[in-house]
Specification:
CATH class of the largest domain: Alpha Beta
Oligomer: single chain
Shape: globular
Strand content: 5-15%
Number of domains: 2
CATH architecture of the largest domain: 3-Layer(aba) Sandwich
Structural class: alpha+beta
Strand order of the largest sheet: 2-1-3-4
Order of helices and strands: HHEHEHEEH
Helix content: 40-55%
CATH topology of the largest domain: Glutaredoxin
């Protein structure tokens, strides 16, 4: 799973400041610690999003051009998401091509996902 930096301007409270401070206070040579802390903060962001009535959003992809287009559309709408390369999850849910967007428990192919993002 890849870490996608959320749009700090879209974060509420002190989470954005905490991310900024973590980046500034982590030595360059300690990437494992930065990764561990970023995962903790990512979980807090998603929990806060779910508590506000939102859904966890996962972009399942391979890094292909369509995957990148969908990721850019999500970022442009300030939609926080997790980037996953777990293609088995997509295949197990009936999808044979990437990207697949998972919103809550609903899976969407590229075309449906683009329409969903555009309506947000």
């Amino acid at each position: 799973m890849k870490y996608i930096k959320p749009n700090m301007a879209a974060l509420e409270g002190e989470i954005g400041q905490e991310i900024y401070n973590t980046i500034l206070n982590t030595p360059d040579t300690n990437w494992k610690e930065l990764h561990r802390k970023s995962k903790e903060i990512e979980k807090r962001i998603l929990k806060a999003q779910l508590n506000k009535g939102g859904s966890m959003i996962t972009l399942i992809g391979t890094g292909c051009p369509k995957c990148n287009v969908l990721a850019q559309k999500l970022k442009a709408k300030n939609i926080n998401f997790i980037d996953s390369d777990n293609i088995d999850e997509a295949i197990n849910n009936g999808f044979m091509s990437a990207p697949v967007l998972k919103v809550g428990n609903e899976y969407m192919d590229f075309g449906t996902a683009v329409k969903w993002v555009n309506n947000q």
